[in-house]
Amino acid sequence: MKKNILIIPGDGIGQEVTTWGKKVLEKISEKYGHDFAFDEAIMGHVAIEATGNPLPDETLEKARKSDAILFGAIGHAKYDNDPSAKVRPEQGLLKIRKELGLYANLRPILLFDELLNASSLKPEILKGTDILFFRELTGDVYFGEKHRSNDRNFASDLMNYNRYEIERITIKAFEAAQRRSKRLCSVDKANVLETSRLWREVVQEIAQQYPDVETEHMFIDNAAMQLVKNPKKFDVVLTANLFGDILTDEASQIAGSMGMLASASIGDGTGFFEPIHGSAHDIAGQNKANPLASILSVALMLEISFGLKEEAAFVTKAVADTLKAGFRTLDIADNTTSPELILGTKEMGAKVLE
Amino acid sequence: MKKNILIIPGDGIGQEVTTWGKKVLEKISEKYGHDFAFDEAIMGHVAIEATGNPLPDETLEKARKSDAILFGAIGHAKYDNDPSAKVRPEQGLLKIRKELGLYANLRPILLFDELLNASSLKPEILKGTDILFFRELTGDVYFGEKHRSNDRNFASDLMNYNRYEIERITIKAFEAAQRRSKRLCSVDKANVLETSRLWREVVQEIAQQYPDVETEHMFIDNAAMQLVKNPKKFDVVLTANLFGDILTDEASQIAGSMGMLASASIGDGTGFFEPIHGSAHDIAGQNKANPLASILSVALMLEISFGLKEEAAFVTKAVADTLKAGFRTLDIADNTTSPELILGTKEMGAKVLE
Ligand SMILES: CC(C)[C@H](C(=O)O)[C@@H](O)C(=O)O
Ligand SMILES: CC(C)[C@H](C(=O)O)[C@@H](O)C(=O)O
């Protein structure tokens, strides 16, 4: 199979982790006789530094032409502490999601048995958890009109949804639920928000076309609580952009660490694969970052964009085997891990490659 | 001390739990020689059934005239599954918050040592946690303009904040931080939202007037994660209405159960005290609800609205002693609780009264 893959390392630890994602892709290409060609592009803070633009046209053009994108991370503390900055790294990520029509962000919460103890949650609460989030990614208050009054004392963001935006991701989520355990939970705040009431109406309508799927509606506050209390009760979780941002980060603690979670953004165009962790500037360049989320993003790419199930399973198994052998990065080590099993980014990447 | 207290039981388990809050107030009044007079009013689903209005004028008038309000819970599944309902119980709660100017919702996450094992989080993660949330309560996307297009296919809610709305709660939160461990974490989504950027600007400005308080800013997605990962790192948490709704429900798992958490809403007028749990219609009328959150709301009322510190401490101690004696309601029992120590609402209420 011949594929053009674009690597966008982005900011912070992005470079370190995508290096290992790429090496895994090369290995797979070799082992299974595929022909993967790679290109690279910039986005985020590094792109602002180089061009003034968080998403240069050249990057967008390369993205459009590629068959899949492996992305690292975005963001820089410099902008976080300057609320009046006009240009921000995150704008690059939001714009590429919108431009490529990446309306569905899939975030599987994959729990490796070996990491049961790395979580702050009790193992008996976690055991057996397997959640697939569908987060809407190109609508909601993220993309609604923003306003700041001339005297700077009033600010607003428009939270909004169109029916078709809800329909298309809802259908994808129900299809996934049919392939999985046939349970879907839609999360909203319909007791307060008009957007959520439209959301719930649409989900209720579409649910009728999937009578074999058990559908539940839950308020976001309750969902944030239930996710800690009893994560096993969830299977497919469908939600809006903002609520999905919050819930999936929270859910990362189920998997032991943000450093373990991969995500796939799909929709109209090229698929976009990224860890859910951020740029983590505090550990960037120190060989401390966990490359497993990037490697697991590669597994999602192989399966979802290229339909290469066997290859994807092979990558996931390589990660599982590495964990089984006892190796850990710092973020997933616990006080029972012996120091010689705690690896840096490179060493962990190399172990998985083996 | 002479005080007029209004009881608004509301919906579902509200009646059962406020009954015990009221009994505790009567007991305190007797023991300490105060003169507490009680009145009752309706709100929510029960008020819709009786008058068509979730917040009848008579209730609002009584609320304005009273010295403090003890509220139960609101909501009914009937409306949740009907996204097109025009009148909803929650409108009553939102309206009374707005009308009474209750802009600051204080939610202390009080962890009783006896309940360390009732949580889904590991005891060593929890031990020592003591968080005080300041949730803004009369602004944000809760109260912004709502819109639905004529063809019903587009919906929006305006997320918005004015500077003064952020200032007044921020000052209250910093004052509390000074009295506590001098750490404040403000939670927003300033990398995406204009409202959050205004929020962060205002908090940064006001922070300069409290140089003794260590101030941190955190994105909501990260906060939702850190709260599970390492709750001890938080002390005073300041946030907007929607984010506060989500984070405090999530944090309830730290305290073992929603059934343990009380809240105080304060601002321009009469103080309003309520458990953070909802109406829980599934267990209503079955003598299963945990009355402790209502009783702890009474402790907050005594301290915050009436300045009765000793009385408040006495109530909190009565709750702690009851837990120490081993008694539990269903929601806070675990598999080590012997069955004869598991009590119903009435029995638990009576134990605390003793
Ligand atoms: C960086 C930020 C804009 C982004 C988001 O909020 O979508 C991130 O948190 C994510 O979840 O991908
Ligand atoms: C009932 C609902 C409107 C309310 C809210 O969202 O504010 C509740 O969840 C709360 O937290 O008090």
From TrEMBL, chains A, B:
The keyword Amino-acid biosynthesis belongs to this UniProt entry's keyword annotation = yes
The UniProt entry, under PROSITE patterns, shows: IDH_IMDH
Tell me a GO biological process for this protein. L-leucine biosynthetic process
Listed GO CC annotations = cytosol
Q: Which UniProt keywords apply?
A: Amino-acid biosynthesis, Branched-chain amino acid biosynthesis, Cytoplasm, Leucine biosynthesis, Magnesium, Manganese, Metal-binding, NAD, Oxidoreductase
Query: What pathway is this protein said to act in by its record?
Result: Amino-acid biosynthesis; L-leucine biosynthesis; L-leucine from 3-methyl-2-oxobutanoate: step 3/4
Can you quote the record's cofactor note?
Binds 1 Mg(2+) or Mn(2+) ion per subunit.
> Which residues are involved in binding Mg(2+)?
D221, D245, D249
Q: What protein does this entry describe? A: 3-isopropylmalate dehydrogenase
Which organism's genome codes for this protein?
Albibacterium bauzanense
